[in-house]
């Protein structure tokens, strides 16, 4: 049984926690390695700049595109796994007793709301066996946003940035850091998944601390936003910890668990036609998408082109499997096979971004037995919720889906005091396997080459790419993602790489990728290796701050231009 630490602290303690040397980001400076990870996505396909999801300042402050800076002065630290940050206007900040928007004012109890949030994540921390333990300083950082700001982040939303018009009770997502990919679709895991499966914050392996003053500033791994402006129901939320007295209000505890599960990776990246919803240049599906089959469970919706199942995926069927005919609705729902049963995944004749393919079909999955006493007979991840409904514990099939997503889970969930204790009859001992990016840490490249030198890296030992991965016995599917060069890989009898050599032919940042493999051939996340290649004439002198700082040494590249030694471009998505 895990021992959990649950603290709610104020701005004063939070300032001590992060120190006072965390300055704001430079407005235009790229923050990521080779500028390749400047664009961040959520599960709705909304893109952010990397700096938009980072903490900065002494309070600390949140750097936001449209709203300026906002104080984040409340947080909960939960066990080893989670830190929750509540911004002003989220409905969970201690000053949010009255929220106003578009001439509507609602009175709420932010401390009661916050207790619900912290209790749900406390229970998840006890339920999930992660790679994070007491020896790690990293936790998953969840950003509780105001609904208006969360909607405002999406320039393509349909609701004019008005929470009153939005049909959702809440929205949530992990953040995803993705390099440009125009080839076959790759499988991506969110930053929440990566942090829980490696025990390491991914951001220092992707972002450049040279643009910070003093300490490295943290970034958020995911967000949650609750809607407090639904004029048809006032007050909207029931915040009972024990599940009583909801009085025709929505149970915040149930919805909080639902949204937290999306943050864990229970979501799809399918668009209406079966292609990736992330848009041009970012061809990715989620690990959840790998599980979805057609209506008769005879074929997976996406298939890889070869044995590297995390790369080269494509949609195999007609778009009608995503938008089935409403006349035979339940029989045409796509499925996930769980515990020998097919669980219908919600799809509608009119595609609903964020809802379609990311939930269990409420209308088609009936006749359940509640997993916890006093709960309604529904799935936590149903496609909609009703007033006064209590669904605070995962159905066994939902737990099985989380196992298939790579989580290692306890055999019990919740407790009787919150009306959600559930005991499961099967074990979920999925090996925890995760990869940590290599070759770059806080602005410093650890893998570099010069001229025509070949870099050789073993799979084992201190200098290996597996040294910082969690529970990885080997790796597979090593490929060049960005750049060019000669890549030679040695394999053992099980098909796992034992070492590799790389001789880059392109200067600047070269990016390789691989998939770590653990016990039972369990595959972790796509993991990147950054190699900085310097030209042959790049010689550093002891008194020089910059190599070839006076541009005296150069190579003629007729007829177009002259290339100054040591000033190779960084190969990013913008080509600079």
Could you characterize what this model shows?
With 576 residues, the protein is mainly beta. Strands 1, 4, 5, 6, 7, 11, 12 and 15 form an eight-stranded mixed beta sheet that branches. The protein has a four-stranded mixed beta sheet with strand order 28-34-33-30, with no helix packed on it. The chain has a three-stranded antiparallel beta sheet with strand order 3-2-13, with no helix packed on it. Helix 2 packs across helix 5. The protein starts with 5 loop residues before the first strand and ends in a 12-residue tail after the last strand.
Keywords:
single chain; 576 residues; mainly beta; 8-stranded mixed beta sheet; 4-stranded mixed beta sheet; 6 helices; 36 strands; 11% helix; globular
SSE diagram, text form:
Layout: E1 6-9, H1 11-18, E2 39-41, E3 47-49, E4 55-56, E5 61-64, E6 68-78, E7 82-87, E8 98-101, E9 104-107, H2 110-127, E10 128-129, E11 140-146, H3 147-152, E12 170-174, E13 176-177, E14 181-188, H4 191-198, E15 222-226, E16 237-238, E17 250-251, H5 252-264, E18 282-286, E19 302-304, E20 313-315, E21 335-338, E22 341-344, H6 396-404, E23 408-409, E24 412-413, E25 422-423, E26 440-441, E27 444-445, E28 448-450, E29 455-458, E30 474-482, E31 485-491, E32 497-504, E33 508-517, E34 527-534, E35 554-557, E36 561-564
Parallel strand pairs: 7-11, 11-15, 14-18, 16-17, 28-34
Antiparallel strand pairs: 1-6, 2-3, 2-13, 4-5, 5-6, 6-7, 8-9, 10-23, 12-15, 19-20, 21-22, 24-25, 26-27, 29-32, 30-33, 31-32, 33-34, 35-36
